[in-house]
Write a structure and sequence with these properties.
- This protein has 189 residues and is an alpha+beta fold.
- The chain has two helices and 15 strands.
- It has a seven-stranded antiparallel beta sheet, with helices on one face.
Length: 189
């Protein structure tokens, strides 16, 4: 086992093709966007840390799009597990529905780790073990994905990253300076 955390971070360039990225963005035009919230420490209350500086999130009802994206998320987590070659790490059996993120100028996401408790509403059981994030567009300034305080992860439309959903992988999205930044995410357990 390698003690360098970067070993457990995987970037997959062009994992989503241009057509799928364009289709996702087109489906988001009429999406029911809501402000992003966090679970307050020590409670189950959802809070907005930065008000209107939080990105917007949505779940899109286009099942064809969701199936196509989920197929790529599942393939990425399987590839990730095979690449590590740990006999005790099997590919996750479950993935959350795809959540879409939209950043407008001056919006950002504060440093956090992906302890996504909202996945487990009583019907689902488990803990998130892998986070999968895909960038859907280019043409914006700012909005860099940053791990471990200062490590900027280069991404372009179609790039997917996979990393463990735990406290060793704190990350944030820097403030968007111009344009609109679209991404999507799914968590695996």
């Amino acid at each position: 086992m390698n003690r360098d955390l970067r070993t457990y971070f995987m970037r997959l360039d062009a994992w989503l093709d241009d057509d799928l990225c364009r289709q996702a963005i087109a489906c988001m035009e009429d999406a029911p966007w809501t402000p992003h919230t966090y679970t307050a420490s020590g409670s189950l209350e959802k809070v907005s840390v930065m008000g209107d500086r939080e990105p917007d999130i949505a779940y899109v009802g286009d099942q064809s799009l969701n199936r196509a994206l989920m197929k790529r998320f599942i393939e990425a987590t399987r590839f990730y597990c095979v690449r590590l070659q740990f006999p005790w790490l099997a590919a996750p059996r479950n993935h959350s529905v795809v959540r879409f993120n939209r950043y407008s100028p001056d919006q950002k996401m504060i440093e956090h780790c992906d302890h996504i408790d909202s996945l487990f509403d009583g019907n689902n059981r488990g803990i998130p073990i892998l986070s999968c994030l895909a960038l859907l567009n280019d043409g914006f300034e700012g909005g860099e994905l940053v791990f471990w305080k200062d490590e900027v992860i280069p991404m372009q439309a179609g790039t997917m990253i996979v990393f463990p959903s735990n406290f060793l992988f704190p990350h944030r999205v820097a403030p968007l300076l111009s344009g609109v930044r679209y991404s999507c995410v799914s968590w695996a357990w």
